[in-house]
Automatic annotation (TrEMBL):
Source organism of this protein record: Methylobacterium ajmalii
InterPro entries for this protein: DjlA_N (IPR007791), DnaJ_domain (IPR001623), J_dom_sf (IPR036869), TerB-like (IPR029024)
Name this polypeptide is given: DnaJ family molecular chaperone
UniProt xrefs under SUPFAM superfamilies: Chaperone J-domain, TerB-like
Gene3D superfamilies, alphabetized: DnaJ domain, TerB-like
Domain J, first and last residues per copy: 180-244
Length: 246
């Protein structure tokens, strides 16, 4: 794994002395394996506050690793796609690979990781969508989303609390099922031009990477938001051309 959007700050928080983490659960176990010198409480949880970028990025790494295990193979294109999102400085490459391998080999199921991420960001569903978008980006990197990957993504989405319509909208950004740009926008075909424009503008506002930056979201979330906005813009441009919108 090489360059992408894993920052030295995040990795430093996993390995830097003096910072306690309270992730607990399966993510806490992974973090503890990488930063083994941290103090644990009696239940085995790491002590202190957990920065959300650590939870976000560690959760994305863990879920990507479990997806790779469900597919049975990690292709070079999937590794490259992972590196598009999660930046790994050269001198920290071995540590991130260790985290990925630990998550892949652990007996804990992906459901535990997904539930912990869902709980951590239950008040920020957009961040859960970021995680799912990141997993889709990795899964499709080899040119196809395989049946096992599709099942995995649907199960993660269900744990995140996404209904069928929301999951279909995320899927449509990555997979050309019916090649329907309306699915990408989560918009009905019978919307008026004004309603469609309003829907598009709301999506741009919600998903603009500048908003993610202003909210202090993890760099991986900003990278995912940038790709998502591109898909939204492309879908609207297609519809606008069909409807001859100015």
């Amino acid at each position: 794994m090489s360059q992408g959007v894993w920052t030295q700050g995040v990795w430093g928080k996993l390995g830097g002395a003096g910072l306690g983490l309270a992730a607990g659960g399966p993510l806490g176990a992974l973090i503890g394996a990488v930063a083994g010198h941290f103090l644990l409480d009696r239940e085995g949880s790491l002590l202190g506050p957990t920065p959300r970028e650590v939870v976000f990025t560690t959760g994305l790494v863990a879920l990507a690793a479990k997806m790779a295990k469900s597919d049975g193979v990690v292709t070079p294109s999937e590794v490259a796609a992972f590196a598009d999102i999660v930046q790994v400085p050269q001198d920290e490459r071995a540590g991130v690979e260790r985290l990925f391998d630990l998550a892949k080999r652990t007996t804990s199921g992906f459901e535990g990781y997904a539930r912990q991420v869902a709980e951590a960001f239950r008040d920020e569903p957009a961040l859960l969508e970021d995680v799912l978008d990141g997993l889709f980006h990795i899964a499709k990197a080899d040119g196809a989303i395989h049946e096992s990957e599709a099942r995995y993504l649907a199960e993660v989405a269900a744990i995140f609390g996404f209904d069928d319509a929301r999951f279909a909208a995320v899927t449509a950004r990555h997979v050309r099922l019916a090649d329907d740009p309306y699915e990408v926008l989560g918009a009905a075909r019978d919307l008026t031009d004004a309603e469609l424009k309003a829907r598009y503008r709301a999506l741009v506002s919600e998903n603009h990477p500048d908003r993610a930056i202003a909210r202090g979201l993890p760099p991986a979330a900003v990278a995912i938001a940038t790709r998502r906005l591109a898909a939204i813009n492309a879908a609207y441009d297609r519809i606008a051309a069909e409807r001859h919108l100015s």
